[in-house]
Write a structure and sequence with these properties.
Layout (H helix, E strand, L loop, with lengths): L4 H5 L11 H28 L4 H5 L9 H10 L6 H11 L13 H9 L7 H27 L5 H10 L12 H16 L3 H12 L9 H13 L13 H17 L2 H5 L4 H9 L10 E2 L2 H14 L4 H20 L5 H16 E2 L9 H6 L5 H7 L3 H23 L5
Helix pairs in contact: 2-7, 2-20, 5-6, 6-7, 7-8, 7-9, 8-19, 8-20, 9-10, 10-12, 11-17, 15-16
């Protein structure tokens, strides 16, 4: 793989118009429309299958509780599922090995903590506000990115695909995906513009949001090397690439100092076990987490499917996860080299992360969703009625998956 100088200096496609109030309003409208659809879906599921104390205590019909408590129950509580509960706990009282929160990177809950006072101390509202704002920024930045470097005519379609490809509903959940992707897209934009310190800063912030921020280190280092060899930048700018591992090291050092991870790191059994303990705190989340070869995950997933009843959640993760992997791999030839490196790193991390004995592929679709360059060539191939049909089908699948999330029947 090589990066020719002209590939970096003369990106394909016309320059997009500057971001205006109208384009920002369009993005906010798209995000709010999707939030409304998912919110309406959550209401009957939350009423029939309440999962939080507030859902069980307060009826869906108004009048049985103070207005603020009722709004919290109707609009916010249905979103508090799985990892969202752990982010809530981090904002509420900090990290805890006992509560398995030590594996979650700090930027998203930190933003939630900063917004919580403005939200009247309501942590669930603060986390959803962060996700909503980040999703709106992501929509704008990704659309502008595609218009700048690929095809202005398909930029809006690419942004919609990013939000509609299952499980895109997590971009609006109290999860880190929208915050991470907004930073990742901006970081790759800065790399292609050869603004290396800005790229390093954004990639470092992405790394403080999710482990997959490490995937940005590969295109950052490659792009810097190409620019230095072509004498388009000074050699000392290579230090910008260090911001990614430094950001990750800062969080690992916090885990060592405050959460007692040093003993686990020292007891690592080989390089793969050490890598896993660096990526994931000693607390873990489910039994059996480790770094493994991709075929180990696939074989164990198939074995679990064969002997489990029900096994629909295992099938969803297998089929949807590999559909996204296939789409990413097939899109590689039409990507810019830096996008290709990022996508390969995301896919490689996802396929080697053995989530646990109960479901090795747990969250695989959500992890592959982060490979945002794959939506650019897909959008270029879709247009007119064909795109509208595909968008409706993708939205239907997202509604199904969101319903399972609200029901607590599938972990995204």
């Amino acid at each position: 793989m090589s990066i020719r100088p002209e590939q970096q200096r003369q990106p394909a496609g016309p320059l997009p118009p500057p971001t205006t109030i109208a384009s920002a309003a369009t993005a906010a409208g798209a995000v709010l429309l999707l939030r409304l659809l998912y919110g309406l879906l959550a209401l009957p599921i939350s009423a029939l299958f309440p999962r939080t104390p507030a859902e069980a205590r307060i009826a869906l019909a108004p009048g049985g509780a103070p207005l603020a408590a009722w709004l919290d129950r109707v609009l916010l509580q249905p979103w508090l599922r799985y990892d969202a509960v752990l982010y809530y706990a981090i904002v509420e009282h900090g990290y805890s090995v006992r509560e398995n929160t030590a594996n979650f990177h700090p930027l998203y809950p930190l933003l939630g903590a900063l917004l919580a006072p403005l939200a009247g101390g309501n942590i669930a509202l603060a986390l959803l506000l962060v996700s909503t704002l980040a999703a709106s920024v992501l929509f704008v930045v990704f659309e502008r990115y595609v218009a700048r470097f690929a095809d202005a005519a398909s930029a809006r379609r690419a942004a919609w695909l990013l939000f509609l490809v299952p499980p895109g509903f997590v971009l609006l959940a109290p999860y880190t995906e929208s915050t991470f992707l907004a930073l990742a897209v901006a970081a790759l934009w800065a790399m292609r513009a050869e603004r290396w310190w800005l790229a390093g800063l954004l990639a470092g912030l992405a790394t403080l949001t999710r482990q997959q921020g490490l995937a940005l280190a590969l295109p950052l280092a490659w792009g810097l090397l190409a620019a230095i060899r072509a004498r388009r930048t000074r050699w000392w700018h290579a230090a910008a690439a260090a911001l990614v591992p430094l950001a990750y090291a800062a969080f690992v050092l916090y885990r060592v100092a405050a959460l007692g991870d040093m003993a686990a790191l020292a007891a690592a059994r080989g390089p793969l076990d050490l890598l896993h303990k660096i990526l994931v705190s000693r607390a873990g989340i489910v039994a059996g987490q480790r770094i493994a070869w991709p075929w180990e995950l696939l074989i164990d997933q198939l074995r679990l499917i064969a002997r489990s009843d029900p096994n629909y959640h295992l099938l969803i993760d297998l089929l949807l996860g590999w559909a996204l992997v296939a789409a990413a791999l097939l899109s590689l030839p039409r990507m810019h080299p830096l996008e290709r490196l990022y996508t390969l790193a995301i896919v490689g991390l996802a396929l080697c992360y053995y989530i646990g004995d109960i479901n090795p592929y747990m969250a695989l679709p959500r992890h592959i969703l982060l490979a945002f360059p794959l939506y650019i060539p897909l959008a270029a191939q879709l247009g007119g009625p064909r795109f509208r049909l595909v968008a409706l089908l993708l939205l239907a699948v997202n509604l199904l998956l969101a319903g399972l999330y609200f029901f607590r029947g599938w972990i995204p």
